[in-house]
Amino acid sequence: MSKTNKKSLFGRFQNLAIAKRITLIYGGIFSFSLLLLSGFFFVNTTILEQNSVRKQLETTIVNIEQFLDNGGTLTNESLKDLLDNKYVEVSVFSYSENEGFNSHVGEIPAFIKQPPQLINENNGENSVLSGLLNKDEVIEELSKTEYHIRSLKELGVNRQEFILEGPGEQKFMLLSTQYKKDGDKYQIQAFKQLNGNQDFLQSFLWKMVIADFIGIFCAFLAGRYISRRVLKPVEQIRTTAERISIEDLTQRIDLDGPDDEMKELTITFNSMIDRLEKAFHRQNQFVSDASHELRTPISVIQGYASLINRWGKSNPDVLQESIDSILGETEHMKELISNLLFLAKSDQNRMHAKRARMCLNDVAQEIVKELDLLQKDRQITYEEAEQVEINGDSDLIKQLLWIHGENALKYTTDGGKIHIKVWKDKKYAYVSVADDGMGIAKEEQSKIFDRFYREDKSRNKEISGTGLGLSIAKWIVSSHDGAILVESKRGEGATFIDRFPLWVEPEAKKGETGKNTKIK
């Protein structure tokens, strides 16, 4: 077979469905094993038969030798009495008497006449040309008959084994040996027909062929069943995947079954759909909230534009009020769009923190100064115990603290206090922004980081905001391997604590400097 055909066959096999490949592999391996086992049994049946016949012939020869050792007189009748198996026949030729004795009745097989013809005259005495029958001479003598030698084995000194085939598909095993007793020499030949079991072998062969055919058929059926059984979870995954759409993410695969790799695949697939469902829900909520937030300023701008069109051209007060409102809403939309772009980039992993060694105290002090410029009758205080350094993006950390500070200003009434503090422990750096404003209810604290979420909008109508600040703050802290802690009670203010891993000096630079320098 050419390489092209081999590649073509292999390629066709590779392109088959997995279930068909499993069926073919399982059925092929089982069928090959069955045929190999059947062939082994058939060959060994023939070998076992020959071993059994050989043992019977050897036993017969031993019985004759023992009879001669005990001084027995050879006759045709005595030979018959020495046979253990009636199907074994024996022929003994005495060279001293120049006479043959046979246990069988009727015509002697042609191959039994060969040993006497190997005798010649030597100094007036009968003698054997050699201790063993000469194969070439035996073949030459047998060629004159209808028999031929199929195999010849030397079993030892003065002993040979012949497998002979004759007319009518007859087959014989012949054991021939030389035996000496008190100067007399004997040629003992025991044989048995092997064709007696031919019908049994043919019957056994046909039964084995039928059994193999049934076994191969059952093997492919079993392979088909096993492949379907094994791939059932995969089929469920396929059908479930076909039913899943953006409008319906509730479909899941049944987890019943053994704890195997397929169950792990099913769990992984269901987990993936869970994440997709949550992501789609968040996306839909985000689009809905963004549309709502953008609709309000657009409606306000549209309303004031209509007002200007109707009366603002001739009324300076209406014109100025409309312009101020439009500018305010435009600024609100600008802030909203900027926050939306920030979150969209973070969702797409396009926003990356440019982290480096930085001093958290310096950023906190800058925020305190900027808040102090914006505050209206509020007391802003700052506290630091020691210099605190982290591996962070100074711009993002400043944006984070600004979000907390701006929220503190919004929710703290006139005369209130805002306190910013920086400290550290053995592992982490901390910065907190605390106020004594209205506080956050405990049940609301887990929701304040959701996008567009604003606690009790009906009571906070006068407080501007997009509801995206804390979502951005959460992403900034997460990108710095940190966490946000919230401590608050309704009516008792709120404290936001940002925790970051402390700056760790790289191994290569340790020992180069005795102390850390302050970074500004």
TrEMBL record:
<dbReference type="Pfam" id="PF00512">
    <property type="entry name" value="HisKA"/>
</dbReference>
<dbReference type="InterPro" id="IPR036890">
    <property type="entry name" value="HATPase_C_sf"/>
</dbReference>
<keyword id="KW-1133">Transmembrane helix</keyword>
<dbReference type="InterPro" id="IPR003661">
    <property type="entry name" value="HisK_dim/P_dom"/>
</dbReference>
<dbReference type="InterPro" id="IPR004358">
    <property type="entry name" value="Sig_transdc_His_kin-like_C"/>
</dbReference>
<keyword id="KW-0902">Two-component regulatory system</keyword>
<dbReference type="InterPro" id="IPR003660">
    <property type="entry name" value="HAMP_dom"/>
</dbReference>
<feature type="transmembrane region" description="Helical">
    <location>
        <begin position="21"/>
        <end position="43"/>
    </location>
</feature>
<dbReference type="Pfam" id="PF02518">
    <property type="entry name" value="HATPase_c"/>
</dbReference>
<dbReference type="InterPro" id="IPR036097">
    <property type="entry name" value="HisK_dim/P_sf"/>
</dbReference>
<keyword id="KW-0808">Transferase</keyword>
<dbReference type="GO" id="GO:0005886">
    <property type="term" value="C:plasma membrane"/>
</dbReference>
<keyword id="KW-0812">Transmembrane</keyword>
<feature type="domain" description="Histidine kinase">
    <location>
        <begin position="289"/>
        <end position="504"/>
    </location>
</feature>
<dbReference type="InterPro" id="IPR005467">
    <property type="entry name" value="His_kinase_dom"/>
</dbReference>
<keyword id="KW-0597">Phosphoprotein</keyword>
<dbReference type="InterPro" id="IPR050428">
    <property type="entry name" value="TCS_sensor_his_kinase"/>
</dbReference>
<keyword id="KW-0418">Kinase</keyword>
<dbReference type="GO" id="GO:0000155">
    <property type="term" value="F:phosphorelay sensor kinase activity"/>
</dbReference>
<dbReference type="Pfam" id="PF00672">
    <property type="entry name" value="HAMP"/>
</dbReference>
<dbReference type="InterPro" id="IPR003594">
    <property type="entry name" value="HATPase_dom"/>
</dbReference>
<keyword id="KW-0472">Membrane</keyword>
<feature type="domain" description="HAMP">
    <location>
        <begin position="228"/>
        <end position="281"/>
    </location>
</feature>
<protein>
    <recommendedName>
        <fullName>histidine kinase</fullName>
        <ecNumber>2.7.13.3</ecNumber>
    </recommendedName>
</protein>
